Amino acid sequence: MPKAPISSTLGPQPSWFTAKRLLAIFCIINLLNYVDRGAIASNGVNGKRSECTKSGTCSSGSGIQGDFNLSNFQDGVISSAFMVGLLVASPIFASLAKSVNPFRLIGVGLTVWTFATAGCGLSINFWSITICRMLVGVGEASFISLAAPFIDDNAPVDQKTAWLGIFYMCIPTGIAVGYVYGGLVGSLLNWRWAFWIEALLMLPFAILGFVMKPLQLKGFSHTESKRPLTSVRTSCPEAVASPSQDGSFQIRNDSKDDSESAPGILNQLTRFWKDMKVLLHERVYVVNVLGYIAYNFVIGAYSYWGPKAGYYIYHMNNADLMFGGITIICGIFGTLAGGFVLDLMTSTISNAFKLLSVATFCGAIFCFAAFCFKSLYVFITLFAIGELFVFATQGPVNYVCLHCVKPSMRPLSMAMSTVSIHIFGDVPSSPLVGVLQDHINNWRATALILTSVLFLASGIWVIGIFIQSVDRFNEENEHQVSVADRSNTIPLLEEKSAETS
């Protein structure tokens, strides 16, 4: 009797899905996520408050800020509310990935995102839109935590950082498109329509997450099992694969408890806490995330306040289009360049830190210098060069997050990275910049103070160069390495041949 194909031990796979199609679909979803962030920051959607002169003449407000009469601090809170939902839900989805198929979790998250985004368009006051924005963050959490590990699993070995670069290129591109999109929809229709259209565009992908055969991450069990294949040394006993006499692999449960039910809440919390201790003791991971926090503090505030700062500093009537154009061009070329350059340097954790520190330092110099000039054209030139360098970090920083931990730890690694950069980065930065601007009332000075934080990010990443690092992408226990090596000989999403009888 012929040997059972290796793919049969990994569960059913989609027959039409390829790695490149997975990348394309994930890129579109990521693009829509960030179009939403750019749209709510645009002048067309965010708008401005009603302003009165000393003579008593008042101009009418516009957008969210005008309709709900928000201060700059309240306006910043709307941005932070999204991040609060994201940071609370990210570790939850990452932990559930060990007992629920990760691809189905993405479907759940995108469904929540779709309905919450539509709810933003129906909001009636500050609190209603704040709650809806928080739920949008909850919905995005599953995708942000799990998409990158899927891509890293299926990318060609010599192009992993490039594929991650393509995926993360959608961040600046989406924000930039969001600026333009929000400006156009806000002026032609109404700011509420911007959210309703986004929800309609995301709906097919939310449905896809439920109707398509679920995919599986490296380091976890096949889709019909509720237990992961891999066992982290800090985790509860789980199923492992052992070779049978005919050469195929069979699932063996080493747990003393033969119950098929998912671990209880207490076990889940215990495993989560132990896995967190592993992350916190990984110095490479901690340094990488600390640098990413400082970096995201600046980028988050740039993305939210950029169009408004440009409007007041350089009197740009088309600030949405201007910032959108600069960000989309520099974001695409900068992010792609960062991924390809690291692959050319040979993708190692040490080389990633070198690229992160140098690119961020150069970007900080150009962006800081840009705000020192009063000429709009000099500003555009220097700021564009600065953004090219700044966005080159996206591929390398996420490469480090994925490769400094074991495969079964990657969802939690990405989730906690996301939580950290938001809770300490752009969650406080948007309202803090709003408070700073309310206090000094000088957008140029505010922008210079904010940009200087990029030098701190560069300095933190320099430390990572000198820390001894180990790439743990293929590091699991003895049995699981064998399974991973065997399964990696055939691309996860390649069309499978029919089983021989």
TrEMBL record:
Keywords of this entry: Membrane, Transmembrane, Transmembrane helix, Transport
A Pfam family matched in the record: MFS_1
GO molecular function, one term: transmembrane transporter activity
Cellular component per GO, a single term: membrane
Residue stretches spanning the membrane: 77-96, 103-128, 163-181, 193-212, 284-305, 325-345, 352-371, 377-397, 445-467
Xref: InterPro entries: MFS (IPR011701), MFS_dom (IPR020846), MFS_spinster-like (IPR044770), MFS_trans_sf (IPR036259)
Region (Disordered): 240-262
Biased composition (Polar residues): 242-252
Domain of life: Eukaryota
UniProt-listed PANTHER family: SPHINGOLIPID TRANSPORTER SPINSTER HOMOLOG 2-RELATED, SPINSTER
Family (UniProt): Belongs to the major facilitator superfamily. Spinster (TC 2.A.1.49) family. Belongs to the major facilitator superfamily. Phosphate:H(+) symporter (TC 2.A.1.9) family.
Record-given protein name: Major facilitator superfamily (MFS) profile domain-containing protein
Species this protein is from: Anisodus tanguticus
